[in-house]
Amino acid sequence: MLHGIHRTVSGRSLAPAPPLDQTCPEPALKPEIPQNSATICHQDYQLSIFPSGKLRYHGQQRTGGGKARVTRFDRYLLSQFLALFGFFSLVLVLIYWVNRAVGLFDRIIGDGQSALVFLEISLLTLPNVIRVVLPVSAFAAAVYTTNKLAQDGELVVMQATGFSAFRLARPVLYFGLSVTLMLLVLYNVIVPHSRTILAERTAEMSANMTARLLVDGKFMHPTDGITFYIRDISDAGEMQDIFLSDDRSSGSKTIYTARRALLVQGDVDPKLIMFDGMSQSFDVAKNRLSITHFSDFTYDLGGLLVAGARPPRSLDELPTRALFAPSAALLAETGSSHADFLSEAHARLAQPFLALATALIGFAALLMGAFSRFGLWRQILGAVVLLIVVQMVNNAAFSASVRSDFGWILVYIAPLLGIVASIAMLWVAQRPRRRHSAGPGPTSSEGARA
């Protein structure tokens, strides 16, 4: 057994390799390899070291035969991608969610809902947030991992063993397809279902009159023409010093004030029972004000709020199969055109592949750069610019796709553009670069003259 090899590739010292087998089975030797070459075998590959110092890589499977499979290098790189993808996804989802949760918290808690309702609504909005950030997380994971591999010299080692740019991109392809599969499930199953539940819960909250009224220290407007105020609410649920203004009738206006009040459930509708109060009614036509004092008075809240009817469904709530063949009833309910339905349906199939495109862009752009101790910042900046261009094309294509029934094909342009650009960069990256002379040597200009 060899305990490692130490080589210098392209003027850079490489770390010792893992233990390798010094000899190979006879069938594994290639006929074009000279007999005086050193052949080193590993369970995943075979290295041939020529007398000139050149390395040659053979195979992607065991030298003794066997079926092709995901190599150790693929598993290693894929694990790096997935680990960082999970980290970036968590960070971006938290940032995006906190930014939206501030306004959501103020609106829900301000309407008198509990913290559990806020938590439920927040969880229902998470799938849509995750759908937005996953392609960005895939890009960030690809760029960070590739830059780290380049700085550590691992990409240089794999390229020296004969890995082409397309072969190096294979684990990136696996990674991108994994994220694409997640997005397909999100776009077509989880997000429509969560949006449907969210719309139903929103309608229920708008109809929950008790929660909307029982807010102390704030003037509430549960419906047009109604103003309600409570100074304080005791631990027993008794309201103290209330104010109720009813301006729904154009002919009269009434104001109720009371020292105490209770909200109770009647046989059909809830009732507001006020104690030690006064009502002031102003007749607009007669210009007369009537004042009535009462020790207790029951106010019917049945007509105070309009029942929370469920609003018409949006395209985000409909299942994908319904979008491909919309009925006349759906077109009327949503108020959308046939082109809108087809565009949304095909977008649910095309948009997930943006994750594959962003991952390949991040990897291929960095692979074009040569090793530098100062990093690959120019390549990273180029990848970000290309990602912005792809997203701009995606937005423009989606906007144009709703103009005609056959415009849905435009939603596939952005993912295809990103994938084609990545393939072009990989092709450029694997082309042999012109070597610059680093000093006297067999390949330098001085060495050649000597």
Question: Can you describe this structure?
Answer:
With 450 residues, this protein is α+β, with helices and mostly antiparallel strands. It has 3 domains: 8-58, no CATH class; 72-205 and 323-429, no CATH class; 223-300, no CATH class. Helices cover 48% and strands 16% of the residues. The protein has 13 helices and 10 strands. The protein has helices at 72-110, 115-152, 154-160, 165-168, 170-207, 209-213, 320-324, 328-334, 338-350, 353-367, 377-401, 413-429, 445-449; strands spanning 8-9, 12-13, 38-41, 46-49, 55-58, 226-233, 239-246, 252-265, 270-283, 288-300. The chain has a 5-stranded antiparallel beta sheet, with no helix packed on it. Strands 3-4-5 form a 3-stranded antiparallel beta sheet, with no helix packed on it. The chain has a two-stranded antiparallel ribbon with strand order 1-2. Helix 10 packs parallel to helix 12. The longest helix has 39 residues, at 72-110. The protein is elongated and about 95 Å long. The model is unreliable at 1-23, 25-31, 60-68 and 434-450 (pLDDT under 50).
| Computed structural class | alpha+beta
The averaged pLDDT comes out at 77
List how many beta strands DSSP finds.
Answer: 10
Number of helices: 13
Largest sheet: 5 strands, antiparallel
Question: SSE string, helix = H, strand = E?
Answer: EEEEEHHHHHHEEEEEHHHHHHH
When the domains are counted, the total is 3
Strand order of the largest sheet: 6-7-8-9-10
Low-confidence stretches: 1-23, 25-31, 60-68, 434-450
Radius of gyration: 35 Å
